[in-house]
């Protein structure tokens, strides 16, 4: 009988236990998909204050030990929770993790260096002997470094590492005087360039260089961060040097949770785009928009520059000259929040601005909207366009990152794509969408095609399994 591949995923967040964004969604869904692909999977997370009492009541305390980080001698407790065939481990240290917010603390570098050490040091206690440790973003980028520098023996020598970059903008950069005192890493590894970038300690670079394989969350983003300095954020040189071990794998979405045929959050469930009408009627009434023949364009996003809202701001006066209604949901930079509030007041029949975070309303918007606008300047993968298509909302996106890999235009396309980060190019894409909308038979075919796309986790999990095998082969 073939031995199961044992995979330990290390991450700073995962749904349903604790989540701030897309990383939490990915780590919440990927383990189940890997299990279905034939792996034995465990996940290790920090035990934050925000992990609910419900989940804590399901945990078993495995024990504790003292862990060394630089000059510090630190408590490390380990809890275990089993759910749907996946084992979840939680690293307990109240000094580092009993805080209101996951990120944004003055000592984040130290907190996640501790967590990276704990991932490795806890293995004898858990009894889980992984073939692969799959690390995610800068918060766990030191796991491959500590594995190589601090650990040896039968348990550790067999471990291969895979490192996933979810967003290269966040790198874990610190001044060089933190190397020994905070991270407990010898100066020679900085001087040799393993962990140094632009005279700073760069944790993300350490993860890239010292892992056996590196992935990012779409093929186009993998190419962009190697070739475009604006997308590589200073690491394009090292990524090009390590390009032979880099793969781009599109994230999936939870197709059970995001299922219009069985979604209790909707006013009316449906299996084809023509079933969206009742949801659109209801949400228009809810948002104060009149019922009419114009298409409803939704935007569910953080309202920030890199999500393309500078382009939207430039385009908005002319966009509202078109026969459309616009519904915006999200929070972000003050100028964009205020911009949409102002337009909603000036155009109450055409614009709705919900400046809040509301996952239930987001789902209702996916189900009610005809079009979904996502004009990002940069988008490593993007989940919103995948969810929109799942609910039969046709995406209008900029050609970048995962948007370029998941939305196509043309006779057999699934949406509308524009290239230049300009208001004119965005408006041209909207006009192409409106031309198609005018022919409702053609629109129905397009929306059905978008809705029928398979963005479940199974294809992505199969590709991760291939990467894991490559990591093991190159580690031998």
Structure write-up:
With 476 residues, the chain is α/β, with parallel strands linked by helices. It is 41% helix and 20% strand. The protein has helices at 22-36, 53-57, 94-97, 108-121, 123-126, 142-150, 154-157, 178-181, 187-191, 203-210, 219-227, 229-232, 236-241, 277-287, 309-319, 334-346, 359-368, 384-390, 401-406, 423-438, 440-451, 457-475; strands at 6-10, 40-46, 60-69, 72-83, 86-92, 132-136, 160-165, 173-175, 196-197, 200-202, 213-216, 246-248, 296-300, 325-329, 351-354, 371-374, 394-398, 416-418. A nine-stranded mixed sheet has the order 3-4-5-2-1-6-7-11-12, with helices on both faces. A six-stranded parallel sheet has the order 15-14-13-16-17-18, with helices on both faces. α1 (22-36) packs across α22 and α14 (277-287) crosses α17 (359-368). The longest helix has 19 residues, at 457-475.
What brief labels describe this structure?
single chain; 476 residues; alpha/beta; 9-stranded mixed sheet; 6-stranded parallel sheet; 22 helices
Low-confidence stretches are: none
Query: What is the rounded Rg?
Result: 23 Å
SS-derived structural category: alpha/beta
Query: Ends: how far apart?
Result: 22 Å
Strand percentage, roughly?
15-25%
In helices, the fraction of residues equals 40-55%
Number of helices: 22
Largest sheet: 9 strands, mixed
Mean pLDDT: 95
**How many strand units?**
18
């Amino acid at each position: 009988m073939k031995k199961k591949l044992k995979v330990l995923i290390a991450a700073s967040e995962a749904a349903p236990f604790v989540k701030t964004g897309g990383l939490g969604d990915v780590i919440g869904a990927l383990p189940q998909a890997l299990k279905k692909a034939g792996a034995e999977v465990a996940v290790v997370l920090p035990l934050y204050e925000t992990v609910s009492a419900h989940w804590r009541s399901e945990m078993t305390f495995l024990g504790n030990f003292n862990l060394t980080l630089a000059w510090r001698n630190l408590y490390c407790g380990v809890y275990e929770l089993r759910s749907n065939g996946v084992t979840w481990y939680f690293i307990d240290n109240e000094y580092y993790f009993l805080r209101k917010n996951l990120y944004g603390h003055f000592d984040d570098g130290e907190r996640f260096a501790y967590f990276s050490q704990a991932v490795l040091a806890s293995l004898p206690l858990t009894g889980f002997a992984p073939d692969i440790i799959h690390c995610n973003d800068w918060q766990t980028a030191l796991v491959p470094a500590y594995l190589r520098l601090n650990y040896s023996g039968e348990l550790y020598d067999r471990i291969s590492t895979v490192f996933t970059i979810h967003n290269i903008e966040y790198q874990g950069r610190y001044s060089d005087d933190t190397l020994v005192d905070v991270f407990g890493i010898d100066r020679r590894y900085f001087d040799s360039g393993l962990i140094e970038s632009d005279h700073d300690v760069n944790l993300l670079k350490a993860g890239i260089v010292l892992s056996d394989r590196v992935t990012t969350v779409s093929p186009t983003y993998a190419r962009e961060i190697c070739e475009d300095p604006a997308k590589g954020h200073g690491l394009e040189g090292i990524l090009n040097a390590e390009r032979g071990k880099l793969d781009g794998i599109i994230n999936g979405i939870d197709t059970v949770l995001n299922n219009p045929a069985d979604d209790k959050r909707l006013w009316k469930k449906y299996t084809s785009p023509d079933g969206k009408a009742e949801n659109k009627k209801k949400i228009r009434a809810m948002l104060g928009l009149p019922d009419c023949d114009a298409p409803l364009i939704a935007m569910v996003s953080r309202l920030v520059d890199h999500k393309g809202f500078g382009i939207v701001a430039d385009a908005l006066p002319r966009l509202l000259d078109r026969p459309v209604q616009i519904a915006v949901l999200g929070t972000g930079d003050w100028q964009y929040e205020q911009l949409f509030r102002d337009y909603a007041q000036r155009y109450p029949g055409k614009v709705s601005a919900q400046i809040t975070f509301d996952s239930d309303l987001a789902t209702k918007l996916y189900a009610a909207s005809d079009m979904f606008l996502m004009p990002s300047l940069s988008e490593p993968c993007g989940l919103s366009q995948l969810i929109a298509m799942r609910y039969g909302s046709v995406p209008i996106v900029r050609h970048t990152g995962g948007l370029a890999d998941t939305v196509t235009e043309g006779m057999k396309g699934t949406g509308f794509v524009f290239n230049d980060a300009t208001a004119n190019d965005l408006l041209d894409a909207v006009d192409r969408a409106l031309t198609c909308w005018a022919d409702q038979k053609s629109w129905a075919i397009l929306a059905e095609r978008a809705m029928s796309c398979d963005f479940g986790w199974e294809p992505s999990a199969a590709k991760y399994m291939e990467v894991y095998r490559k990591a093991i082969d190159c580690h031998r």
